[in-house]
Design goal:
GO biological process, one term: purine nucleobase biosynthetic process
Bound molecules: guanosine-5'-monophosphate, iron/sulfur cluster, magnesium ion
CATH class of the largest domain: Alpha Beta
Number of strands: 23
EC number: 2.4.2.14
CATH topology of the largest domain: Glutamine Phosphoribosylpyrophosphate, subunit 1, domain 1
Pfam families: GATase_6, Pribosyltran
Organism: Enorma shizhengliae
CATH architecture of the largest domain: 4-Layer Sandwich
Structural class: alpha+beta
Cofactor: Mg(2+); [4Fe-4S] cluster
Distance between the termini: 25 Å
Largest sheet: 7 strands, antiparallel
């Protein structure tokens, strides 16, 4: 999912949120929602569908306020319903909050039961709603929203990056491992109002606006300047009183940022840990050329996430880079299709080979990952039909052998082709002439030095998975 938040009295916060979500649409296409706070109350509008299917110009105009949050939802195993769209709203007496969550919480079943016993009612089966209700419940009991968030962070386990508003303050907080990304940016308000001559720090003092978002590409689109990442375990509060930071829960000794963000999920123009995702992918391709060289005539990338590593592979190997596949921009991500047939069809709708570029050539084909194997089976077939002499598949990440429990739903372990077949067997299954994956060390060497979660590749889970949760994913 993608989350966004803005505190900027005097600006059109609903439209800023809309633009921010537009830049984050790749993080989720199943539902979209915006909540605004106007000093008196909190209003939410959300629905199933892409951002533009949910919000008309008139909808945005009716959402007026000083602060807002937004959410785009990633299609996961959970129910597709209006109720599970976000932001979630909780109203208990005079405590009203809206919350947007990216990630997955692994221990909410028990917490939900306890809340129900306390008389709290639920609208959906979503883990994010449990967090919302918990925060609402504790805030009502303690009369302090920050205390409500802190107590909730002590109870919930998993990966989360959350934005939250009440009538007048914006909060942003992140799990103690920093699994899901969340960045802080600053809006130069005077610039936003159209006078760039007043755009220096001095004149914007006292008239500040702040933005939080899953990725820096959402800061860029609203003209905000990157300030820093929200720290693991931190709670940030932004209001009239300025920006206040507090450690909600102790940060883990070593952070565990999701490494799949750089491999696949994030946009290439986003900057993570100080390095653009584009440069990370390019360097993965260079590593891959060292680890798995091959004699060939042309390197092609599978659009979009396979293009930067293909450039890197070409540069390092000396084999020319070329365009071999054209992507239809109007087809949403294939992964999200619910059935295998629809997914296979999705590949053909989405990618078409450039025949005259590839006919007769020995190709190196780079893609970011093989999860179920659906994409590669179709692709290799298409490339051969288009006349490729040889097809050598190179993947710029290690084998995905383990399910993710922290917010990237790669499905159950039995669906992961690498959990069930050897590299040679996969190569035969997809019909390639050769196949190789990047090593874990090669992947890490392409990224800034940080603590990363690599669980889907290594099975080393930073946050323990309760036995009651997701057992079926291991079957
Ligand atoms: P497969 O077809 O093997 O099941 O999935 C691999 C393809 O899906 C790759 O082309 C990759 O770019 C894409 N992919 C990998 N992980 C994800 C994901 O979490 N979500 C979506 N939407 N696509 C993914
Ligand atoms: Fe990211 Fe993989 Fe860890 Fe999930 S298991 S958080 S996809 S690195
Ligand atoms: Mg792809």
């Amino acid at each position: 999912c993608g989350v966004f938040g803005v505190w900027a009295p005097g600006l059109d916060v609903a439209r800023l949120t809309y633009f921010g979500l537009k830049a984050l649409q790749h993080r989720g296409q199943e539902s979209a929602g915006i909540a605004v706070g106007d000093g008196g109350t909190v209003m939410v509008r959300k629905d199933l569908g892409l951002l533009d299917q949910v919000f008309s110009n008139a909808d945005l105009s009716s959402l007026t306020g000083d602060l807002a949050i937004g959410h785009v939802r990633y299609g996961t195993a959970g129910a597709k319903s209006w109720e599970s769209a976000q932001p979630h709203l909780s109203t208990i007496n005079d405590v009203i909050i809206a919350l947007a969550h990216n990630g997955t919480l692994v221990n909410t079943d028990e917490l939900r039961r306890q809340l129900i016993d306390l008389g709290v009612s639920f609208m959906s089966s979503s883990d994010s709603e449990v967090a919302t209700r918990l925060i609402g419940y504790f805030t009502q009991r303690t009369s302090h929203l920050r205390e409500g968030i802190r107590k909730t962070m002590e109870l919930v386990r998993g990966g989360y990056a959350m934005t939250l508003i009440n009538e007048h303050a914006l909060y942003a907080f992140r799990d103690p491992f920093g699994i899901r990304p969340l960045v802080l940016g600053r809006l130069p308000l005077e610039c936003q109002k159209g006078d760039s001559s007043q755009c220096d720090a001095e004149t914007s003092v006292g008239a500040e606006g702040w933005v939080v978002a899953s990725e820096t590409c959402a800061l860029d689109i609203v003209g905000a300047e990157y300030v820093r990442d929200i720290r693991p375990g931190e709670i940030l509060r932004i209001s009239e009183e300025g920006l206040v930071s507090e450690q909600g829960v102790l940060a883990a000794r070593e952070s565990a940022e999701c490494i799949f963000e750089q491999v696949y999920f994030a946009r290439p123009d986003s900057i993570m840990a100080g390095k653009s995702v584009y440069a990370c992918r390019y360097d993965m391709g260079r590593q891959l050329a060292h680890e798995a060289p091959v004699d060939a005539d042309m390197v092609i990338g599978v659009p979009d996430s396979g293009l930067p590593p293909a450039e890197g592979y070409a540069r390092e190997s000396g084999i020319p880079f070329g365009e071999g596949l054209i992507k239809n921009r109007y087809v949403a991500r294939t992964f999200i299709q619910p059935t295998q047939e629809l997914r296979a069809m999705g590949v053909r709708m989405k990618l078409n080979p450039l025949r005259d570029n590839i006919a007769g050539k020995r190709l190196v084909v780079i893609d970011d990952s093989i999860v179920r194997g659906t994409t590669m089976v179709q692709l290799v077939k298409m490339l051969r039909q288009a006349g490729a002499a040889e097809v050598h598949v190179r993947i710029n990440s290690p084998e995905v052998e383990w399910p993710c429990f922290y917010g990237i739903d790669t499905g159950m372990q039995k669906q992961l082709i690498s959990a069930n077949k050897s590299v040679d067997e996969i190569c035969e299954y997809i019909g390639a002439d050769s196949l190789a994956f990047l090593s874990v060390q090669g992947l890490l060497a392409s990224l800034p030095k940080r603590g990363y979660c690599t669980a889907c590749f290594t099975g080393v889970y930073p946050v323990a998975i309760p036995s009651s949760f997701g057992r079926d994913k291991f079957m």
